[in-house]
Amino acid sequence: MNTISSSSRRARLLALLIFVMIGPLLRAAEVQQPAVDGAELRQAERAPVPPALPSPSTQVDPNEIRITGLGKGSTSWTIVVLLTFLTLIPSLLLCMTPFARLLVVFHFLRQALGLQTTPTNQTLIGLALVLTFFLMQPVGATIYQTSVLPLQEGHISAMEALERGAVPVRKFMLHYVREKDVALFVELSKEPRPRNPNDLSLRVIAPAYITSELRMGFQIGTVLFLPFLVIDMVVASISTSVGMLQLPPVVISTPLKLLLFVMVDGWNLLIGSLMRSFN
After folding, report:
1. What would the 3-class secondary structure string for 197-255 be?
2. Which of 49, 81, 161, 248 has the greatest CB tally within 10 Å of its CB?
3. How far apart are CA 83 and CA 78, in angstroms?
4. What is the pLDDT of residues 164-206, one digit of tens each?
5. What is the pTM (predicted TM-score) of this model?
6. Is residue 51 packed enough to be buried (19+ CB in 10 Å), middle (13-18) or exposed (0-12)?
7. Residue 102 burial (CB < 10 Å; 0-12/13-18/19+)?
């Protein structure tokens, strides 16, 4: 019994000694573990953060239309200016471009040929628009370079851009306006007599220009009408002299006029003459 008790005492002492020796090592390991975690956290905080990728909702749609302020203006005023300009486009097209002269001449041609609906009004208007764009393209390019680009870059205000854009249009209209028409509207407007054409205001130039264009269009149309009128008169006299009273002369003269117009390549001659009249 004494041997068993002594052996059990020795086992207890050995276990106590092992616990005393291993306990501090375990506590040291527990203390060092949070320090390592803190160092890793500090290194993670110092590491550069990659840029966040844009979400699908914030990506720009290529088909989206955005209206920004022109120059230094706000978006609302830009929309007001654009809508006002859109409403004035028909008036500008009629009063400050060759559109009126071209359309008048084309209608005279259709009446001279004896055709009521061929070519249609839409066809004649489209042809006049295309030719107007062809003639006004240099003026539009000058306006874009001197007025629109500086306005978009914010170098000038909207009013200054409007004044710059009016200069090429004024030069174009002054080149084709008649002095008699200018004198008429200067007198009607009660403005002082200008020293040179550059002193004229758009209030005088615009109505004088459209009056001159209408006169020129009627003049060209009258000259264009004469050869077809001669054909009508000859056909009418011949049909009357031979006793063809029941057959209208226009039935015979219309194919003859169309044949003459096609044989001489009338569209090429007419459009070429109109384009040269603006040079």
Report:
1. HHHCCHHHHHHHHHHHHHHHHHHHHHHHHHHHHHHHHHHHHHHHHCCCCCCCHHHHHHH
2. 161
3. 9
4. 888 888 888 888 888 888 888 888 888 888 888 878 888 888 8
5. 0.65
6. exposed
7. buried
Query: Which residue intervals of 47-120 are DSSP H helices?
Result: 75-95, 99-112
CA 127 to chain CA centroid, Å, is 20
- Using the Cα atoms of residue 199, residue 278, residue 130 and residue 225 in order, give the sign of their dihedral: positive
Count Cα neighbours of 21 within 13 Å in the Cβ-side half-sphere: 6
Check residues 116 and 99 and name the one with the higher pLDDT: 99
Distances (CA, A) of 250 to 64, 112, 134, 236: 57, 11, 36, 8
Angle at 210 between CA 187 and CA 128, to 5 degrees: 175
Hey, which of 161-170, 249-258, 261-270 has the most confident mean pLDDT?
Answer: 261-270
- For the stretch 60-64, contacts whose Cβ atoms lie closer than 8 Å and that sit 24 or more positions apart, written own/partner, are none
> Could you tell me which residues come within 8 angstroms of residue 64 by beta carbon, excluding any fewer than 6 positions away?
none
CB-facing half-sphere around the CA of 178: CA atoms within 13 A: 10
